[in-house]
Every structure is written in structure tokens, then in C-alpha cells.
Design goal:
Layout (H helix, E strand, L loop, with lengths): L11 H4 E4 L5 E2 L18 H5 L2 H11 L8 H8 L5 H9 L16 E4 L18 H12 L6 H9 L2 H4 L3 H4 L9 E4 L10 H11 L6 E6 L7 H7 L4 E7 L4 H7 L5 H13 L5 E9 L7 H11 L3 E6 L13 H10 L7 H8 L6 H18 L3 H4 L1 H7 L4
Parallel strand pairs: 1-3, 3-4, 4-5, 5-6, 6-7, 7-8
Antiparallel strand pairs: 1-2
Helix pairs in contact: 6-7
């Protein structure tokens, strides 16, 4: 498998599906677009994996192409940063020892986004992944006497698991050969139905061969019986999304409370079972670029098994490539000794996408959200505000 890391080949279209927040499906979580005309509560995952759309995608990879939907990975790789494609090959290497691009598709890895139910509305998120954000986006337009049909649709469709409880029963036939579950969201610990999937795997004896990965915002602490359930699985990894600390964390992940989240993470450690590890996943974006040292210090104190530095691609105006050169130079000079952030610095400097249009849209979005939430970017990020001029 390692030989594919430096190629354009990605094994995910052969072995993986993402169940998205609206009940659709896509080859992976970073893929731009969904598989057209499918809903996971209307057809099996196996049949979705064998659609003409997926067959064509696999054909493109076999022919050495770089599919447009995979642009996020190509951007990171071209900037010298390890992409999801490369990380996936590394993770899958023991499961796919005999795999080649000519192999038949076999569903081994499932990324479940079981709706957009979430208690937070993070600045680098939106209605596509958070029911709270969807309502806020609707409120923006209502205040102006209008409507937001896109956000209203996201709010409705993001609740599909509650309207289609049969999905969790019908899914069981697709689980026989699965080796890896990823649960994100929304906030996965607020979507209780996903535990039905885990219970089925325990009852059928599949659990001992399955790894589980969670992405959680850290605000939800599952009851002890869930930790007991996890103990039946091969390995459980919980990734806490921590983009900043203190007041800056609360601004970016409204309305989370930093002290409560920190206390929850300690409780997770106290309940840790031998098959469980913790990871910190921090998303680099325009809000936290002057706080990387603070984040790195906190991570060192928490001592996770892994610290993964992610990249914000959407909303695009919060992508670090759009920052003015003055900010980029400060970041590169200030953090040139932070090993974990060197790929992010290379990515940031790989493209100069600063423009009058980007600045205007970024300012508009920040001011709109600040006004609604009664927050102030300038108060929380005074040094950054001096350059970005969100508040004059």
C-alpha cells in the first residue's frame, strides 16, 4: 500500500463511503459534491458503492487522473502537507495488503455523519454540519424580512435519522466486512441512535475486528455504559476538536464553555479503557493563527496520543491562504520552531489569495455573526484586528 502514497491513487472509492449529514453519500468527507440521486435510507450502502458515478471515479484514479472532487487533497499535497488521501493509505495499510486499483469494491470503512444535530455553531462551520447554525442563518434573513431556503433545507434534511429509524435495522447487512467506523456529525454523542450500530456489532461478534474513530466537540460526556460498550471493540480513538484555548476557544466554538470542555476531557481520561486513545484535532484558520503556541502548550499538557493539525477549507474566507502577507510573515517568523505547524505554514504560503473581495466578505461574515451573538472580534483578537481591520 505504501507505494500509492506518492502516486495519485486513492483507495477510498473502493473501500469507503461517507454517509453525509443529509442522508446522502460521498466517497469521503473532503470530496466536493455527493453521489447524485442516492439516499442511504432508501438503498443499501453496497449498492451505492457500485453506482455508475463511483465506477467512473474509480476509473479516473486507475487512469492516473486527479479527480476535481478531490481538490482539497491535491492542494495540501502540492503545498507539501500530508493529505487525507495519504493519511488514509497509511491507516489502511494493514487491511488492504493485497489491494490494487483493479480490485473489486468492498466496503470496509464507513464515515457516519448521522445528521447535523449539534449544540455548537463554530465560526468555521455552517448549516451543513450544525442544526444550531442552520437556525442562526435563517434568523439572519428573517430579521431582514426574507428567508434562507438553503439553511431551512439543511435544518430539515439534517434530521433524517429521526424520520427514518428503519435505517439502523436495514444497515446491518452492510456491516459484515467493516473494519473501521468514523462518527462525526453534527455532534456524534448527541445522536444516540448510532449506539444501535455498535450494539449490533457486539451481538454479531463483529466488534473485536472493528476500530472506531470519533470527532467530538468535547461538550458531551457519554454515560459509563457507553465506555463499557466501547471496550468490546478492537480500538476506539476519540478526537477532540480544540482550535484554541480560553476566550478565543469560546468565540470560535460558540456557545461552548472552555472550563466545562476542559473538565470533560479530564473525565474522558479517567474513564479510559485499555483499547482507547485520545487525539487532539486542531483546525488552522484565520482566527487562531496568532495563538498556535498557546494551543501547542495546552496540547503538551493534555498529552494526547496524537495531535493532528487540520486545515479549514470552508468557509473559504477563513482559509489561511486568504490572509494578507503581513499576517503570514508574522506567523512564519513567530512559529518557525513549532514542528507540528510547519506543514500548515507551507500550505499558508503556497498561495496568495488575499483580495479586496475576500477581505470584504470575511469582514461582512464576522460582523454579522458578532452582532447576532453580541460578541466582538476586536476584543478577543486585538492584534489580528489591527491588521485585518474588522473593527476600525
Amino acid at each position: 500500500m505504501d507505494k500509492y502514497i506518492d502516486s495519485n491513487i486513492c483507495p477510498l472509492p473502493w473501500n469507503h463511503l461517507e454517509v453525509d449529514v443529509n442522508g446522502g453519500a460521498s466517497p469521503c468527507c473532503l470530496y466536493k459534491g455527493s453521489i447524485p440521486g442516492v439516499k442511504v435510507y432508501e438503498q443499501s450502502l453496497k449498492s451505492i458503492q457500485q453506482t455508475e458515478y463511483m465506477e467512473l471515479l474509480r476509473k479516473k484514479f486507475r487512469e492516473g487522473e486527479r479527480p476535481k472532487g478531490c481538490q482539497s487533497c491535491w492542494q495540501e499535497e502540492d503545498a507539501g502537507k500530508t493529505s487525507k488521501r495519504q493519511n488514509s493509505i497509511y491507516k489502511m495499510r494493514s487491511s488492504l495488503t493485497d489491494w490494487t486499483p483493479n480490485s473489486e469494491p468492498t466496503l470496509k470503512f464507513i464515515d457516519f455523519k448521522l445528521g447535523n444535530v449539534c449544540n455548537l455553531k463554530c465560526r468555521i462551520c455552517g448549516s451543513w454540519s450544525s442544526s444550531k447554525w442552520a437556525q442562526e442563518e435563517i434568523d439572519y434573513e428573517t430579521a431582514k424580512g426574507g428567508d434562507n431556503p438553503v439553511a431551512r433545507k439543511q435544518l430539515k434534511e439534517g434530521g433524517w435519522p429521526k424520520r427514518n429509524p428503519q435505517f439502523f435495522e436495514e444497515l446491518q447487512e452492510d456491516l459484515k466486512y467493516v473494519e473501521y467506523f468514523e462518527f462525526t456529525g453534527g455532534e456524534p454523542f448527541m445522536i444516540k441512535d448510532h449506539f444501535k450500530i455498535l450494539m449490533h456489532c457486539v451481538e454479531k461478534g463483529y466488534a473485536k475486528n472493528i476500530d472506531i474513530h470519533y470527532n467530538t466537540n468535547g461538550t458531551q460526556l457519554p454515560p459509563q455504559e457507553i465506555f463499557d460498550l466501547w471496550s468490546y471493540f478492537k480500538h476506539v480513538e476519540i478526537a477532540f476538536s480544540i482550535d484554541d484555548v480560553g476566550e478565543a476557544f469560546e468565540y470560535q466554538r460558540h456557545p461552548a464553555n472552555w472550563r466545562e470542555v476542559s473538565a470533560n476531557l479530564v473525565k474522558f481520561k479517567e474513564r479510559k479503557t485499555p483499547n482507547m486513545d485520545f487525539q487532539i484535532c486542531s483546525t488552522v484558520n484565520i482566527f487562531n493563527v496568532f495563538n498556535w503556541a498557546k494551543i501547542a502548550l495546552w496540547v503538551a499538557q493534555f498529552q494526547p496520543k496524537f495531535f493532528y493539525v487540520n486545515t479549514c477549507f470552508d468557509p473559504d474566507v477563513f482559509n489561511v491562504q486568504t490572509l494578507p502577507r503581513q499576517v503570514k510573515d508574522i506567523v512564519a517568523d513567530r512559529y518557525n520552531m513549532l514542528t507540528d505547524y510547519q506543514p500548515s505554514i507551507r500550505f499558508m504560503n503556497a498561495a496568495d489569495r488575499d483580495s479586496t473581495e475576500i477581505r470584504a466578505e470575511r469582514k461582512r461574515r464576522i460582523l454579522q455573526t458578532d452582532a447576532y451573538r453580541k460578541e466582538n472580534f476586536g476584543d478577543v483578537f486585538p492584534l489580528l484586528n489591527n491588521i485585518l481591520r474588522i473593527y476600525e
